[in-house]
């Protein structure tokens, strides 16, 4: 069950979190049916919903009706997706609610399907996950890791043989969706090692963005080894992954000396343009690592620089990111990453 969901306001004005909505459904079912439903839920979810039920207090009839209507729509959507696939579900929902509502319902259900069907993978520690996957095919490892958080995926990939690392990363990057047939094959192969794995329909998994998150959590030697091997036959993919690995906003994670180092190589005009589209944290980080004179000059230029195109801002930020990457490759600065990149002052 998702935590920390933002409160959603019903048409009758009361704001309810997803947990509170679940509690409202449980209350509306009555004790007998609610107890039957509890039998199919994880103990953690039962505990959380029970706590929400105890806290729920008074709900007006209009809000309760809104919640039950939303629950009914989700049930219908879930049934259509699991029995007929996404395209069948879309056709049914568009006829019933229109294209926009259908898209919203499908987005909610596909996310919940992915989270529910493969949530057990995130409960496994890295060692047991690696032990279960180490002798599987790269395609199998890639699919399974696409349902695991990036930190755990990185830990598993670090333990694989270098040749396997490259193949697994490439498979994840090229993966867009998992068909029911493919997932069923994985289920059969992993049945003895994992439990509670159930069939799912096409859900977006993997992709270049996901690989970038994994690479950001690898130690430097593993990252370099994977990129070196991958670039031999797929240089374009390597470039796409690198573009997504470090973004301008990540400057706030850098140490002061590294920030000072890359600023020396930046065109002041690029700094001005880049800061026009940055948040206050990034701006503060950059200004605090400039000389007083340079900081004042940049601030003056920011005040007189108006009507800037977003494209120009993004290109300036990308040029600065390119400078940072180049300096890191020459070991002239440090980008803090996950994995084994501990820093000794």
For the CA atoms, what is the radius of gyration?
25 Å
Mean pLDDT: 75
Number of domains: 3
- Low-pLDDT runs of 5+ residues are 1-13, 80-84, 196-203
User: What is the approximate shape?
Assistant: globular
Give the SSE string.
Answer: EEHHHHHHHHHHHHHHHHHH
- Please give the order of strands in the largest beta sheet: 1-2
Helix percent reads 55-70%
Number of beta strands:
2
Q: What's the story with the biggest beta sheet?
A: 2 strands, antiparallel
Name of the level-1 CATH class of the largest domain:
Mainly Alpha
Instruction: Report the span from N to C terminus.
Output: 41 Å
**CATH architectural name of the largest domain:** Orthogonal Bundle
CATH topology of the largest domain: Annexin V, domain 1
Binned strand content: under 5%
Number of helices: 18
CATH superfamily of the largest domain: Flagellar motor switch protein FliG, alpha-alpha superhelical domain
Draw up the topology in text:
Elements (H helix, E strand, L loop, with lengths): L7 E2 L5 E2 L1 H12 L1 H8 L4 H13 L5 H37 L1 H19 L8 H8 L4 H8 L4 H10 L2 H13 L5 H11 L17 H9 L3 H12 L3 H11 L10 H10 L2 H9 L3 H8 L4 H13 L5 H20 L16
Antiparallel strand pairs: 1-2
Helix pairs in contact: 1-3, 1-4, 4-5, 6-8, 7-9, 8-11, 9-11, 9-12, 11-13, 15-17, 15-18
Describe the structure.
- The structure is a single chain.
- The protein is mainly α.
- The chain has 3 domains: 8-117, no CATH class; 119-244, Flagellar motor switch protein FliG, alpha-alpha superhelical domain (Annexin V, domain 1, Orthogonal Bundle); 247-329, Flagellar motor switch protein FliG, alpha-alpha superhelical domain (Annexin V, domain 1, Orthogonal Bundle).
- Helix content is 67%, strand content 1%.
- It has helices spanning 18-29, 31-38, 43-55, 61-97, 99-117, 126-133, 138-145, 150-159, 162-174, 180-190, 208-216, 220-231, 235-245, 256-265, 268-276, 280-287, 292-304, 310-329, and strands at residues 8-9, 15-16.
- Strands 1-2 form a two-stranded antiparallel ribbon.
- The longest helix has 37 residues, at 61-97.
- The two termini are 41 Å apart.
């Amino acid at each position: 069950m998702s935590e920390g969901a933002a409160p959603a306001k019903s048409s009758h004005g009361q704001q309810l979190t997803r947990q509170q909505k679940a509690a409202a459904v449980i209350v509306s079912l009555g004790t007998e049916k609610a107890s039957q439903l509890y039998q199919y839920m994880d103990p953690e979810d039962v505990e959380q919903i029970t706590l929400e039920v105890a806290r729920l207090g008074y709900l007006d009839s209009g809000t309760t009706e809104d919640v039950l209507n939303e629950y009914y729509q989700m049930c219908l959507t879930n049934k259509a997706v699991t029995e007929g696939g996404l395209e069948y579900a879309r056709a049914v929902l568009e006829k019933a609610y229109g294209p926009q509502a259908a898209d919203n319902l499908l987005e909610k259900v596909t996310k919940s399907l992915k989270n529910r069907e493969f949530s057990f993978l995130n409960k496994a520690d890295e060692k047991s996950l690696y032990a279960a996957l180490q002798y599987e095919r790269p395609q199998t490892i890639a699919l399974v890791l696409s349902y695991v958080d990036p930190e755990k995926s990185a830990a598993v990939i670090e333990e694989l043989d270098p040749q396997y690392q490259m193949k697994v990363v490439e498979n994840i990057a090229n993966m867009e969706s998992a068909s029911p047939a493919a997932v069923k094959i994985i289920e059969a192969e992993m049945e003895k090692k994992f439990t509670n794995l159930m069939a799912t329909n096409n859900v977006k998994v993997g992709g270049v963005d996901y690989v970038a998150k994994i690479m950001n959590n690898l130690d430097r030697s593993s990252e370099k080894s994977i990129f070196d091997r991958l670039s031999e036959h797929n240089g374009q993919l390597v470039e796409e992954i690198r573009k997504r690995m470090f973004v301008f906003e990540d400057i706030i994670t850098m140490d002061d000396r590294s920030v000072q180092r890359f600023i020396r190589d930046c065109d002041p005009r690029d700094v001005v343009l880049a800061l026009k589209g940055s948040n206050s944290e990034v701006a503060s980080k950059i200004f605090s690592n400039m000389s007083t004179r340079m900081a004042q000059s940049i601030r003056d230029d920011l005040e007189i620089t108006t009507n800037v195109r977003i494209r120009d801002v993004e290109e300036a930020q990308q040029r600065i990111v390119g400078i940072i990457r180049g300096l890191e490759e020459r070991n002239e600065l440090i980008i803090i990453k996950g994995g084994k990149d501990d820093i000794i002052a």
